[in-house]
């Protein structure tokens, strides 16, 4: 196929530089734009119309889930490969629900990212080996994650609430009204059976949405 133009979305410049070098060593691969936030990714996608997007999930403000959803709302044919530290099957499923075409963890070998880019660029779906194993194990065990009860937008709101953002700040970040965020907040508590916000934080940590305070975030 012709040149694969890539939009690379990650909030760490050094990380982006490393992956840019990896990708541009492949024949026909070119990083045409970079972004640090979900909002910047949306604007860059509209401006550059890349072949595919490589999207981290842990971004400042709205997460990569919001970035995936927003881009897919503008272009239903957008090809987006999530590339993240989050290894849980539940998080991968939410990414696919939001519109992602692939999910690769940052613990995977570099070759796995390159392979997945090629698959997604052709219109296919790809997951890294560790996520494939997680998905298979979860299906066989029948166990459920708290995130199973929530839609992608609710997961986004839960992550922001659990990270300590105020209602008004979340509303501004997601371009929604404070009342809508309050309704989401109440609905999430009801669905998860959370007694209070502290319980919500605990559930978010258990689901891998946020890290316990004091731990480094290498997402």
Automatic annotation (TrEMBL):
CDD domains named in the record: LuxR_C_like, REC_NarL-like
Keywords: DNA-binding, Phosphoprotein
Residue numbers bearing the 4-aspartylphosphate modification: 56
Domain (HTH luxR-type): residue spans on this chain: 143-208
Pfam families to which the protein is assigned, alphabetical: GerE, Response_reg
Domain (Response regulatory): residue spans on this chain: 5-121
Gene3D superfamilies: 3.40.50.2300, Winged helix-like DNA-binding domain superfamily/Winged helix DNA-binding domain
Protein name: Response regulator
